Amino acid sequence: MKKIDGHLHLVKTIAGLNGKGRLNALGDGKAIWDDGTVIQLIPKGSGDDSFTAEAAMELMKKAGVEKAVLLQGSLNGYQNYYSYQTIKKYPEHFIGAFSVDPFADNAMAIVKRHVEDLGFRAIKFEISEGGGLHGYHSEKPFRLDTDAKVGQIFHYLADYPGFTVTVDYGSSDQISYQPEAIANLAARYPEMDFVVCHLSFPSADHLNRLKAALELFKSKQNIWTDLSAIQDIIGETDFPYPKCREAVALAKQVLGAKRLIWGTDSPWSATFNSYENLANWLEASQLFNQEELEDVLYNNADRVYFKESAVKAAAEAADPALTR
Q1: Inter-axis angle of helices 207-218 and 179-188, to 10 degrees?
Q2: Quick one: average pLDDT of 165-188?
Q3: 3-state DSSP call for residue 183?
């Protein structure tokens, strides 16, 4: 069965930033935060201090994954330009989103460069308190649907119908948790597509919280949620992840299979569970019939991220900085 990994990260250069400080490579796939926390960022055998497109494609090929969506995050550091280079080099395998800190002085110039020059048709906001913008902008909590700086970006993107906005807002115990903001933005910008990462950070012990968030999205047909990293979030390593199955069953009940996008959040998630297991668990879960599986594993991501306008923009993009 064809698969698109709807949530993948490449790491050309480790450049992580969050409340723990900067992330520095140690080798053998490990990295250390400035506060002394050591993590295994890259699965063993997939890179010493990087996770390249070629390393990703090796894992994808073994697991029968045809294409992937390249997203950015503070854990690895934004890999915008490497994503651009990868999409140009392997257009049959990759599409991607860029990220920007909306509070940077040159934020709008960065946004315009990535949309107009580099051809991106998706943006990722990682605003979580644990690993995103709220982790290093804690002096000023903000909402995506009311903040003036973020609003500038949305006003600009409104000129690009079909643009995809992907959001990681963290767990419900973080100030960054904003399902209401996504519902408001989806209503305000009906020609944009919105993807909530990580199934809105489910807790196996508090599924009513997940249901409340999904009910907000239910009536907005331009909101999807990806299923990446829920094994890490719920804390499961026993395939085929029965607690994750329960959370996804609820999402299927509320949103339906056509609003769910499979993904892995590799490379980090593939250090807790093998990429192959992450690729195959939904089939093993017996949650979906054949048609539903085709939607969750391939069709939905293809429709949201690999839409014709996005593929065409990426194909036509050429960095003017390289032609001067």
Answers
A1: 10
A2: 97
A3: helix
Beta carbons of 251 and 199 less than 8 angstroms apart: yes
CA 162, CA 158: separation in Å to the nearest integer? 9
Instruction: Return the structure tokens found at 53.
Output: 């497109």
pTM, to two decimals: 0.97
- Whole-angstrom CA distances from 53 to 9, 68, 124, 197 are 9, 10, 19, 21
Query: What's the rounded Cα separation, in Å, for the pair 86 and 180?
Result: 34
Locus of tokens 């990681």: 168
Domains and CATH numbers, the chain: 4-10+53-317 (3.20.20.140)
Mean pLDDT of the chain: 97
Spatial contact of 201 and 172, defined as CB atoms under 8 Å apart: yes
- Could you tell me which residues are beta bridge partners of residue 24? 32
What residues contact 25, with CB distance under 8 A and at least 6 apart? 14, 31, 49
Rg over CA atoms, the chain = 18
The pLDDT of residue 130: 86
pLDDT tops 70 at residue 324? no
CA separation for the pair 189, 191 (Å, rounded): 5
Alpha-carbon distance 215 to 198, whole Å? 16
Separation between Cα atoms, residue 10 and residue 82, nearest integer Å: 8
Q: What is the secondary structure of 99-139 as a DSSP string?
A: ---TTSTTHHHHHHIIIIIS---EEEEE--TTTSGGGT-TT
Query: How many CB atoms within 10 Å of residue 237?
Result: 11
Q: Which residues pair with 166 in a beta bridge?
A: 124, 195
147 near 102, Cβ under 8 Å? yes
Q: Find, among 9, 43, 42, 1, the residue nearest to 226 by Cα.
A: 9
Which residues, in sequence order, are CB contacts of 235 under 8 Å at separation 6+?
none
C-alpha distances (whole Å) from 140 to each of 181, 184, 312 are 17, 21, 38
Sequence letter at residue 23: L
